[in-house]
Amino acid sequence: MTWRRAIGWLLAIAILFFLARTLLSTWNQIAASGFAFQFNFPLLLVSTLLLIPARSFAVEAWRRILRALGNPISLRFALYAWFVSNLARFIPGNVFQLAAMFMLAERAGVSKLNIVLSQTVYAAIALSVAALYGLTLLPIPAQMIPLVALAFLALILLLALPAVFQLMLNVSARVLQSVRRNTEITTPRVTTTFLQNLIPPLCSVTMWTLNGIAFWLFVRSMTEISIDALPAFIGMNAGAYFIGYVSFITPSGLGFREASLAFFLGAFFPAPVAVAIAFLARLWSIAGEFLGVGIAVLLKPTDDEGRTTNEPSSSVIRPSSSK
Asked: What is the residue extent of each domain of the chain?
C-alpha cells in the first residue's frame, strides 16, 4: 500500500469517526424531542430495486462510448462486466476495479486502451451532469427554473458534439500518457455523429434522476418527507456522489460522500438524523450493488454473446500519433 492510499484510508476513517461522534453525542437530544424512524420495508425494497435500472443506464452510456471506439459489446455482457468488476471498488488501491474490468472485457475482445478511455469519457460525462444537478441545491427562485432546464439542455447538447467527444478522448489519452509515462500511447480518431453521441449524456441524466428518486424513496421508507423535496433529493444525491468521486484520495469517496450528504440533509433533518441517514445510505447503495451483481451473474452471458451484437460499430478508429 503506497503512502497515498494509506493517507486516503486514514482520512476516510477520520471523517467517519467525527461523523459518528456527532451522531452519538447529540442523539439523546433527538430522542428527547420525540423524533423516531418509522421503517416501511416495502418502500425500502422498491428503492433498492430502482437502483438496478438506474445503474443500467450508466452501463448503457459506457457501452455506447465503447461502441464508438470500435468495440461493440452486448448490453448483457456490459452489465455483467460492469457490476462484477465493481466488487473490487473497496479493495485498497485504485487499480483493482480496472484490472477486473480488463480481465472480464478481454474475453469480449475489448482492448485495454479502449476500456480506460471509455471509462474516462464516461466519468467526464457523468460527473458533468452530477455537478450540474448538485448546483440545483442552491437557492433558486421559481422564475429561474426555466434557466436551469436550459442549462441541462445546453450541457447535453455540448457533450453530444463530435468535436467535444474527440476532445475528451484526446485529453484522456494525454493523461494516460502522462500517468503511464508512455509516449507510444496514441489518441484514437473516431467518426461519430451528433445523434450517436447524444445517447451517453441522456443516459447519464436518466441515471442520476432515477438514482435521486430511489434515494428519496429510501429516506421516505424511514421517515416522513414531502414529495416537494424530491428535486432537492435528486440534486443532493448527485452532488454528494460528485464530491466523493472528485475527492480522489479516499476509496469510493468514503467519508467525503457521507459528510457532504449529511450536510445537504441538514436542511431537512436535525444533524444526528442527517448523519445517520448518510451512513445508512452507504449501506443501502452497497446493497443495490450486490443486488446488481446477483442479477448480472444470474444472467451471465457466454463469451460469444459478449462479442456478438446486432448493432454495427458507429465509428471507425484511425489511431494516430497524439503529438
From this structure: 37-307
